[in-house]
Design goal:
With 420 residues, the protein is α/β, with parallel strands linked by helices. Helix content is 51%, strand content 9%. The protein is built from 18 helices and 9 strands. The strands form 2 sheets. Strands 1-2-3-4-5-8-9 form a 7-stranded parallel β-sheet, sandwiched between helices. Strands 6-7 form a two-stranded antiparallel ribbon. It is globular, with a radius of gyration of 22 Å. The two termini are 37 Å apart.
């Protein structure tokens, strides 16, 4: 057996490995160029991302209705003026577009958008997709695919050209959280469901799930859930999870991903920017893992208060995989805290981050920022390990980082459920 060389400079070794590691981004809202206008990219889409929309209303007295009547370019100009020119862009949401410009080699020192817009006027969506994946060192992203979105459904129904870098995930929020609205739509598509969930309805919802699994080949089923998510209870959501989602996920051999803790439309006038956060009951995750040991669960929770409990739950249930620091948690201070906590409680058996990107360009900055934070946490933990006398090698670091950035997710997908 060859003798492995000790890392002489742990910080340098870790940074080098983390910066070069290819990423599998397990949850995004991106689409390939073949999906047409569903793919968002470029400086105006980047500046009108809902994180920045929420922030700009703290810097202007403009009424939201007036803002939404502006063209996208005018909205971007306003956000640039208010958040980048009239004050220093110190927030993480503001830092993101500036990081993108730097990575692309676009000079932001002039503080004008002309150079950025000129760059995007001379590149196609397909060309830019290749540029972003290469510069971000992302190997694959997982989309969020909602059959209840009319524009997206239309694309899937014509069997679009698939890009292997874009894997699918079947989003089922409409069925789980808005059943009374979803049921008539399912009937219109030929599924014999009733508003009252009975045996026929269960069979038909399972059929709908399996039809879409066959159509898009998702890596997992996914749902965003509110802070008051309860299981089991007498709600249609619990009934559908127990009798439809979990059995179908077992049959298909795929996990059920739960993103828990979002309060929708806290301020409806802000649209996507108006959603908020609340702490959830982590016991529901343990109940699902305990009662359904043949299912696998990918879980991320939005509230900071839930992170410790989720880590403890994962120590008890191997069919639970914590992942990512999304939305309001995707800030360096909280990514650092959460990643360190997970490492200390779970070792390397978690997925530290996903981008949650809605704009293609965000792969550039979200992963650049996250890599830096994750590298800092790992460096500290490897130094702690070396202080015990353990021989930390570059091979160790490379293996561990591969697991965190792609291998843990791919192994979790490949695991055979106990009941198979």
């Amino acid at each position: 057996m060859p003798v492995l060389k000790t890392c002489q400079d742990i910080d340098k070794c870790v940074r080098r490995v983390v910066e070069r590691a290819p990423i599998v981004d397990i949850h995004t809202h991106l689409f390939p160029p073949s999906f047409g206008k569903l793919l968002l990219w470029g400086i105006d889409d980047l500046l009108t991302y809902h994180y920045l929309v929420a922030e700009v209303f703290r810097a202007t007295s403009m009424d939201p209705e007036r803002f939404w009547k502006l063209s996208k370019a005018a909205q971007a100009d306003l956000i640039w003026q208010k958040l980048f020119l009239e004050r220093s862009p110190l927030s993480e949401a503001c830092r993101g577009p500036l990081s993108v410009l730097k990575i692309l080699g676009i000079d932001a020192k002039s503080r004008k958008l002309d150079a950025a817009r000129e760059y995007f006027n001379h590149v196609t969506a397909r060309e830019y997709t290749d540029i972003v994946f290469q510069k971000a060192r992302v190997r694959k992203v997982v989309m969020t695919n909602d059959p209840f979105d009319p524009a997206e459904r239309a694309v899937w129904m014509r069997k679009p050209l698939r890009d292997r870098r874009f894997a699918s995930a079947l989003r089922i929020d409409a069925v789980l959280s808005h059943w009374t609205q979803a049921a008539p739509q399912l009937r219109a598509w030929g599924y014999k469901v009733r508003t009252r969930i009975d045996g026929v309805t269960v069979t038909e919802v399972r059929r709908w799930l399996l039809d879409w699994i066959k159509r898009i080949h998702p890596l997992y089923l996914a749902a965003s859930l509110p802070p008051d998510f309860a299981y089991p209870d007498k709600s249609s959501r619990s009934t559908l999870i127990r009798h439809c989602v979990l059995p179908v996920a077992r049959r298909a051999g795929i996990p059920f991903a739960m993103m828990i803790g979002v309060r929708r439309s806290a301020n409806p006038g802000l649209r996507l920017a108006g959603d908020s956060v609340g702490p959830a009951d982590g016991a529901v995750v343990e109940t699902l893992c305990r009662e359904s040991p043949d299912n696998r669960f990918l879980v991320t929770m939005l509230s900071r208060e839930n992170q410790y409990e989720l880590c403890v739950s994962a120590r008890k249930f191997p069919n639970l995989m914590p992942f990512g620091c999304w939305w309001f948690l995707n800030n360096p201070a909280l990514v650092e805290e959460t990643t360190r906590m997970r490492t200390e409680l779970l070792g390397l058996s978690f997925i530290p981050q996903n981008s949650d990107a809605r704009i293609l360009d965000q792969l550039l900055y979200k992963w650049a920022h996250s890599r830096a934070v994750i590298a800092d946490v790992l460096s500290r933990k490897y130094r702690d390990l070396a202080a015990t006398g353990w021989n930390v090698t570059s091979e160790d670091v490379a293996r561990d980082v591969r697991g965190l950035f792609s291998g843990n997710f791919e192994r979790f997908l490949a695991e055979t459920p106990r009941g198979k």
